[in-house]
Write a structure and sequence with these properties.
With about 180 residues, this protein is mostly helical. Helix content is about 60%, strand content about 5%. The protein has helices at about 1-20, 40-50, 50-70, 75-95, 100-105, 110-120, 130, 145-150, 155-165, 170-180, and strands spanning about 35-40, 125, 140.
């Protein structure tokens, strides 16, 4: 009888181990969450000077010039409105805290690489107070430089980046007001 009981216990233990029963000692805690933060203004400025963005701006200017030459006032008005909207958006991103998801989308591969290399679960602008609020106690890793490396900036542009970093951004509401007034 005693041998049967011992045998039953052994069979039960072997069975539990083979089917993956939880171990008495839990696995070590997973690595605490980390998030990447970046200076959105710097990325917006760098994107403005990127080859692709400069090419797009050149196309718009050429199309506007062609519309003017042809006397196509409707097309010219449309293009001028688009250019003004792009400029206002860029100013809100560079001088204030407007989101830069459109900029990050242009460097998606670099964003994914930075997340993998730094072990961050997500990226947020360092100016996004509402977005950062749930992560107060989470480790924050500044990934601005890694993201900035996606853009080929010359020495003059890098100097401007350095200057941008020295100043706090305009509050978004104030920047929008200045845009409406034509002062930004």
């Amino acid at each position: 009888m005693k041998e049967t009981l011992v045998f039953s216990v052994i069979v039960t233990v072997v069975f539990m181990v083979s089917v993956g029963a939880p171990a008495a000692n839990p696995t070590p805690a997973t690595r605490p969450e980390r998030i990447g933060v970046y200076d959105s203004r710097v990325l917006a400025y760098a994107h403005f000077w990127s080859e692709a963005e400069q090419r797009e701006q050149s196309k718009m200017f050429a199309a506007a010039k062609e519309a003017k030459t042809k006397g196509d006032t409707n097309r010219l008005v449309e293009l001028k409105a688009q250019m003004k909207q792009r400029q206002e958006k860029n100013h809100l991103q560079v001088f204030s805290t407007a989101p830069v998801e459109d900029v990050l989308a242009t460097i998606k591969g670099q964003v994914e690489l930075v997340q993998k290399q730094t072990g961050v679960s997500r990226l947020l602008s360092k100016w996004d107070e509402a977005g950062l609020k749930p992560y107060r106690s989470v480790e924050k890793v500044d990934v601005t430089e890694q993201l900035l490396s996606s853009f080929k900036l010359d020495a003059k542009q890098l100097k401007v980046v350095s200057e941008i970093r020295k100043h706090e951004p305009l509050p978004l509401a104030k920047a929008k007001e200045l845009v409406r007034e034509g002062k930004l």
